Amino acid sequence: MPTAAEAAPAPTKPVFAAFYSVLEFAQLVGISESLVWRLIKEGKLARVRIASKTLIPYSQLERIGNDELATTEEERAARKAQKTGKETQTRAS
Q1: Which member of 1, 21, 27, 34 has the lowest number of beta carbons within 10 Å of its beta carbon?
Q2: Strand order of the sheet with strand 53-57?
Q3: Residue 83 burial (CB < 10 Å; 0-12/13-18/19+)?
Q4: Is residue 8 part of a domain?
């Protein structure tokens, strides 16, 4: 006869949650935490603050599509190119 430990399944974290931490959301979507924070700052991603914790609602998983991430990546690449251009101009002076 199996023991209680053998009979009970190991607890697992549910795939669905009402809210995710910034780290959990980043891992689910496959982006960095810093990009999640940037999306929050730019108003492209909603957040909920509970005490000192920042949580992202499940509904944001559906909202955050590849198009929005691509735009963000394109904006980031453009900013990097612009910054590099300014540094090059400064060095040339």
Answers
A1: 1
A2: 19-21, 53-57, 48-50
A3: exposed
A4: no
For residue 35, what are the domain limits?
Answer: 18-92
pLDDT at residue 6 greater than cutoff 70: no
The answer to whether residue 82 sits within a structural domain is yes
22-55 pLDDT, tens per residue?
Answer: 999 999 888 899 999 999 999 989 999 999 999 9
Q: Determine contact, residues 21/29, Cβ cutoff 8 Å.
A: no
CATH value at residue 80: 1.10.1660
Answer yes or no: pTM beyond 0.85: no
Position 86 in a domain: yes
